[in-house]
């Protein structure tokens, strides 16, 4: 199952920076909350071998925008959670060592690694922060589409991004995609309740 969380860019602080309310308007806080909750779920369900791998893209860090670095990071996190390294992963290491493997080799290693695991969660933050002009973003979307085509029942992917036309068009190829818009009346109502609660209980406000 693939979820895409879509929202607009977070543009600045809307309340004084000394206030605890600033955290709910932070994109980093939003993503970190998702990751923390998923980590807690995986820890509580250790018998079922639930595991998490996540990746943050950044427009200020060119290295973090490379598809190969994304795949290597995901593979490294998942390998650290398994007791027996799949043959495909061992072959990847034996063939390339510390050099940079091609994307198809990384994908060949990733698939059996996920299949050999229990319930697997992949959280991909800020997909839109990869440049569209260089073709990198299209390549990353193609990777997500390909992973979704593996149809691994225990694999769950969540990707966050701003509302970008090229991302939307690329991910329409994902058959089991669920788009979750952050800007909707239900979310607005939850934020209002949270703000009212913080104002009522915080002496600094």
Kindly state the number of beta strands: 5
Strand count, sense and barrel status of the largest sheet are: 5 strands, parallel
The sequence of SSEs as H and E is EHEHHHEHEHEH
Rg computed from alpha carbons, rounded to a whole number of angstroms: 19 Å
Distance between the termini: 41 Å
Structural class: alpha/beta
> Going across the major beta sheet, what is the strand order?
2-3-4-1-5
Number of helices: 7
Short description:
This protein is of the alpha/beta class and 205 residues long.
Can you put this structure into words, describing what you see?
With 205 residues, this protein is an alpha/beta fold. The chain has helices spanning 27-44, 67-79, 87-96, 103-115, 136-149, 165-171, 185-201; strands at residues 2-7, 51-56, 120-125, 155-162, 177-181. Strands 2-3-4-1-5 form a five-stranded parallel β-sheet, with helices on both faces. α2 runs parallel beside α4 (103-115) and α5 packs parallel to α6. The protein is globular and about 60 Å long.
